[in-house]
Each structure stands twice: as structure tokens, then as C-alpha cells.
Design brief:
D-Maltodextrin-Binding Protein, domain 2, alpha/beta, Bug_dom1, signal, lyase, 5-stranded mixed sheet, single chain, globular
């Protein structure tokens, strides 16, 4: 009897899992972008949504919910039903902001479901008009002779935490200067109002390619294969700064693991499209190839890294 009941339960659970996969999506899917229109994340989400519409046969609507270092849009996603119909595409800022913002309306460890690592690239340090050096090693010497100012896209941003990480790892005598977004940070570099800015390849390489800024270093032990002419921080003798930037898809807590696996697989198909491959090439980035569990490990590791750094550096205190 117990064997029979166990078989019935197993069949029922199997049918439920299959149903969750087969029924998704059962209507329009909303992808929340916690940044304004026209930014790098938004410009990734919109062509990705078109590719997902081809796969899912349902409308995929991109909705911009900017503010509070991406936390407004992220919080709204956590309050949605765990049916996959509302998703979030965010950068690594989802792992840095919680280290600084103590009044979050959600638990960053338990109230989100990491689904897919979409895009990854190393962080690149670029120099502005005031920087005479052409690489990280030269910048370290330059910092001994004059005050150095590292611009960020705002408190709690990935550029903020990467700047703090570099200051700590390189024992760099520099001050952090916050601006309102990456565009403003880059503009102030061009005007000589700050010296460096650290962000992902997609954010900084357009300025490098047109000569307005110069790439000082890829923050990695070795050179990045897509930017072979840019020296690495490892070449300057600096270690401990090789955390990669990323763009990823998240859902609310409580999602069916089978549904998460399905969305992960569908996102991999979308990222393999010619459209997304072209965008990756233009941004000097690569597609992520992690399972949901593997990406969850990356996300939780980064949360811990930035929390520890904030405590060590006194960020936000």
C-alpha cells in the first residue's frame, strides 16, 4: 500500500512539474529593468525580449523601473508571483547595493531566485584627461606624486565597490568621487574632473574606441582575450581584484526548480541568436554558461564579498 501511495505521489509531483513547464508562459511576460531607458542593461533587455518572444510565442514586455541603485525595480520583482511571468534583468549592482543599503524591503539572499548568468566580462579601469600614464603600473607611480580621484556611477554601484576594492588591494592613495550614473562619471573623466572610472567592457569601451578615454587595465590576473592590447592588473603586480562584471536574470523566491531550469535553457537559446551574439561582440563580452545552481553560488559569493569589503573599508558608515 505504501509503495502504491508513493508511486501515486511521485506521478502527481511529476505531472505538476511537467505542467509548470508546459504552461509557461501562459500570457505576457514582464522583464523589469531597474535602470532608465537607453542604458546598457536596457539595450540588452530589449533585443533579448524579442528573441524570447520567438521562443515562447508570447509578448515579452520590458518595463523600466529605475532608482535607488536598481533596488526599486528589484524590490518590485521580489513581490511578484513566482510563476515566471515577472522577471528581472540586473547587473552585479544587485549584489553590491545590499552591502550599502541597510533598509532594503527584501532579503537579498532568500527573496530572489538566480536564474541565468546572461553576460559576463571583466571590469576595465579607464583613465581620463588628467592621467598621463598608459597602464596601471604607471598610474600607481602617478598616484605617489599627486592626489588621485576615482569616479563612480554612484554610492553602492559596482563601479564604487570595484574602486574601493582596487584602493584596498593596491594600497592606492586615492579618493572616491560619486556621480549620477556611468555616463556622468565618464564625462567628468573627459573634462579632467576625476582620474579613473571602473566598469564593464560594455560601459567603457565605446569611450576608449573613439579616443575619449584610455584603457589602463583589465582587472584580471591575465589579459582578456577580446582585449589583447589592454594590460592586466596582474601585470602591475596587483591581485585580488579579478571579480567579473555580469548581467543576469532573476525571479522571485519560491519558483519551481523545473521552471527555473526551463527559463535558463530558453535564455541560453536566446543568447545564442545572431542578434545577441552581435551585441556581445560589440560589447567585448561573452555569454554566461552556468546552471541556475552554479549562478546562485556566484551571486551569493559576490554578496558576501561586497558585504565584507563594506565592513572593512567602512563604506556607508
Amino acid at each position: 500500500m505504501k509503495t502504491f501511495l508513493g508511486a501515486v505521489i511521485a506521478l502527481t509531483l511529476g505531472a505538476t512539474v511537467a505542467s509548470a513547464q508546459e504552461d509557461f508562459p501562459n500570457g505576457p511576460v514582464t522583464i523589469i529593468v531597474p535602470y532608465g531607458t537607453g542604458g546598457s542593461t536596457d539595450m540588452t533587455a530589449r533585443p533579448l525580449a524579442i528573441e524570447l518572444e520567438k521562443i515562447w510565442g508570447q509578448p515579452v514586455v520590458v518595463v523600466n523601473k529605475p532608482g535607488a541603485g536598481s533596488m526599486i525595480g528589484t524590490t518590485e520583482m521580489t513581490q511578484a508571483a513566482p510563476d515566471g511571468q515577472t522577471l528581472l534583468i540586473n547587473t552585479a549592482a544587485i549584489s553590491t547595493a545590499p552591502a550599502l543599503q541597510k533598509d532594503l524591503q527584501y532579503d537579498p539572499e532568500t527573496d530572489v531566485t538566480p536564474i541565468s548568468l546572461l553576460i559576463t566580462s571583466p571590469y576595465v579601469m579607464v583613465g581620463g584627461a588628467k592621467v598621463e600614464s598608459d597602464d596601471f603600473a604607471g598610474l600607481l607611480k602617478e598616484a605617489e606624486e599627486r592626489p588621485l580621484f576615482m569616479s563612480t556611477a554612484g554610492p553602492g554601484s559596482s563601479s564604487h565597490f570595484m574602486s574601493e576594492l582596487v584602493i584596498d588591494a593596491a594600497n592606492l592613495p586615492a579618493d572616491v568621487v560619486h556621480f549620477n550614473g556611468g555616463g556622468e562619471a565618464a564625462t567628468n573623466l573627459m573634462g579632467g574632473h576625476a582620474d579613473t572610472y571602473i566598469s564593464t567592457t560594455a560601459s567603457v569601451m565605446p569611450y576608449v574606441n573613439d579616443g575619449r578615454l584610455k584603457a589602463l587595465a583589465v582587472l584580471a590576473p591575465e589579459r582578456f582575450e577580446l582585449l589583447p592590447d589592454v594590460p592586466s592588473s596582474g601585470e602591475a603586480g596587483i591581485s585580488g581584484v579579478d571579480i567579473k562584471g555580469w548581467v543576469a536574470m532573476f525571479g522571485p523566491a519560491g519558483m519551481d526548480p523545473a521552471l527555473v531550469e526551463k527559463i535558463n535553457a530558453d535564455l541560453a537559446k536566446a543568447m545564442a541568436s545572431d542578434t545577441m551574439k552581435e551585441q556581445l561582440e560589440q560589447n567585448f563580452a561573452v555569454a554566461g554558461k552556468l546552471t541556475p545552481d552554479e549562478f546562485k553560488d556566484v551571486y551569493l559569493r559576490d554578496l558576501k564579498t561586497w558585504k565584507n569589503l563594506a565592513e572593512k573599508r567602512g563604506i556607508g558608515q
